[in-house]
Specification:
By secondary structure, the protein is mostly helical. Helices cover about 70% and strands about 0% of the residues. The protein is built from 4 helices and no strands. It has helices at about 5-20, 25-35, 50-70, 70-95. The protein starts with a helix and ends with a helix.
């Protein structure tokens, strides 16, 4: 892997982890679908994200997260859980792309 590819992967990882701060499950869904399509290569420890059943779970979670925003009580609960889930999702995404 040359230096340009390393820089690109790091920038992509940082961008995806920043996106996870907005929505916890939409960026992992995107990474899962991109890996399934062969557009990105995941680190060996994260090959489990390139499975259809995982993409389906991320898709359902993303839809539920978007729908839950319409209900204030549920939205507040998700915001509370997001204090833990969103940083973990960001770290997961960043680590899944960095395979040096």
């Amino acid at each position: 892997m040359d230096i340009a590819q390393i820089i690109l992967v790091i920038l992509m990882a940082v961008s995806l982890s920043a996106c996870a701060g907005i929505r916890a499950f939409l960026p992992p869904l995107a990474v899962s679908l991109l890996a399934l399509g062969g557009y990105i290569t995941l680190a060996p420890q994260f090959q489990w994200m390139a499975r259809w059943d995982v993409a389906l779970v991320f898709g359902i979670a993303a839809v539920l997260e978007i729908v839950a925003d319409k209900y204030p009580g549920v939205d507040n609960l998700l915001d509370g859980a997001g204090l833990v889930v969103k940083p973990l999702a960001g770290a997961l995404l960043a680590l899944s792309l960095i395979h040096i």
